[in-house]
């Protein structure tokens, strides 16, 4: 994997309002068919010796750099698995560091398109980054395989979805919605508190979970939102302790998850209310760092390294042999992004320059992966996933792991 531009800019953190003026518009709607766009280039004849250039927009510096590292490992692993080529052509991944900032993401996408002449874009980690770069990518008629950014409207909203946009990861709420009735029926929760990070993704996921929990018959007694990068959750936890509830649903990620879950136990809230929520609460990347405070937490996710399938066992074993740790959600999604691109290249004999044919091949990608059958929804071009319910337990070797205790198959992004 090679770098684009060096990521030299100094940018504000993702909590700034940099994305406000760069939100997607409805002018470039999904009706802009790749075969009908004016001024679109004539498909070139591919050269078997010319690499397929994949532009990967990742967060490699700043507060969310760990996310970029995990996605990079998954992409590298997939590239090695296929021998570095597909459809008879070598694949070159050119990385660009967005630093988690929408304005820098815009600059890096333009560099990849104009300077590096990439054939396809992947990556993009945060929802505000995806909102910022959406129109640029679509108007350039470049295929985009999203590997993390969960802005649900990109695929759910007919005005924003596009023939050029595919997503292999998840949309906000996609694996939160199935957990709501599951917790009501299997854990017996009737009255709960909801808590999350106070920004777009957290708010969107909270709203989805609340709606589905109430539809199942449950009651939400309070909602507690905390700012990104909160260091002391004491005031928020004290408020939760005052609730008349059976349990607490939470969605926190990365360093915020480590601090929240650890302090949840330290403040004694764990003794009062069981904690459950989104899979990022106990992601493998930092589960050991959380330690025993994570025990018994139930979460839903699109991936679990302990999921029992031959494909996943092989994936986990080979990944751990290379990197020395288990793959988590982000490594899995990075893997899927490159695997999907490779499958489409194989189907077209490497003719990525023939955009209508290549887009059709992407839409029809289907294979058995670590979590079972992979395929896209025909309308949204978003992955139809198997949602797994996991509980943190101590394993035989003494380590902690997210043990699968339930699953919900065939969850698409229009199902909630």
Automatic annotation (TrEMBL):
Compositionally biased tracts (Low complexity): 10-49
CDD domains noted in UniProt: PBP1_alkylbenzenes-like
Keywords in alphabetical order: Receptor, Signal
Region (Disordered) location: 1-50
Domain of life, source organism: Bacteria
Secretion signal, residue range per the UniProt entry: none
Positions of the Leucine-binding protein domain: 51-393
Pfam families, sorted: Peripla_BP_6
Family according to the record: Belongs to the leucine-binding protein family.
Protein's name according to its UniProt entry: Extracellular ligand-binding receptor
Native organism: Sphaerobacter thermophilus (strain ATCC 49802 / DSM 20745 / KCCM 41009 / NCIMB 13125 / S 6022)
Lineage: Bacteria, Pseudomonadati, Thermomicrobiota, Thermomicrobia, Sphaerobacterales
């Amino acid at each position: 994997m090679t770098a684009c531009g060096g990521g030299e800019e100094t940018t504000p953190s993702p909590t700034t309002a940099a994305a406000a003026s760069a939100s997607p518009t409805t002018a470039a709607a999904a009706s802009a068919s790749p075969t009908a766009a004016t001024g679109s280039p004539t498909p070139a004849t591919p050269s078997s010796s010319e690499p397929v250039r994949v532009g990967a927009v990742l967060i490699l510096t700043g507060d969310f750099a760990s996310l970029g590292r995990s996605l990079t490992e998954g992409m590298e692993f997939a590239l090695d698995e296929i021998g570095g080529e597909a459809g008879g052509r070598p694949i070159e991944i050119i990385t660009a560091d967005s630093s988690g900032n929408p304005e820098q993401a815009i600059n890096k996408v333009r560099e990849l398109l104009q300077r590096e002449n990439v054939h396809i874009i992947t990556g993009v980690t945060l929802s505000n980054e995806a909102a910022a770069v959406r129109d640029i990518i679509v108007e350039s008629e470049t295929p985009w395989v999203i590997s993390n950014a969960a802005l649900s409207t990109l695929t759910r909203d007919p005005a924003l979805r596009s023939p050029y946009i595919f997503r292999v990861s998840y949309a906000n709420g996609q694996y939160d919605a199935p957990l709501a009735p599951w917790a009501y029926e299997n854990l017996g929760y009737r009255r709960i508190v909801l808590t999350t990070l106070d920004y777009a993704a957290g708010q969107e996921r909270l709203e989805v979970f609340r709606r589905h929990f109430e539809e199942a018959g449950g009651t939400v007694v309070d909602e507690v939102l905390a700012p990104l990068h909160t260091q002391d959750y004491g005031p928020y936890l004290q408020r939760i302790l005052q609730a008349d509830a059976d349990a607490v649903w939470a969605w926190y990620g990365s360093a915020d998850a480590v601090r929240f879950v650890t302090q949840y136990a330290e403040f004694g809230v764990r003794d009062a209310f069981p904690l459950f929520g989104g899979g990022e609460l106990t992601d493998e990347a930092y589960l050991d760092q959380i330690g025993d405070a994570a025990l018994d937490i139930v979460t839903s996710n699109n991936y679990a390294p302990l999921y029992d399938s031959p494909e996943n066992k092989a994936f986990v074993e080979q990944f751990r042999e290379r990197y020395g740790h288990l793959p988590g959600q982000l490594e899995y999604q990075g893997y899927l992004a490159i695997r999907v691109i490779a499958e489409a290249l194989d189907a077209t004999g490497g003719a990525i320059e023939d955009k209508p044919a290549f887009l059709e091949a992407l839409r029809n990608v289907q294979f058995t992966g670590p979590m079972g059958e992979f395929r896209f929804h025909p309308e949204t071009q978003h992955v139809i996933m198997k949602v797994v319910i996991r509980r943190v337990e101590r394993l035989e070797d003494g380590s902690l792991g997210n043990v699968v205790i339930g699953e919900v198959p065939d969850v698409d992004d229009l199902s909630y």
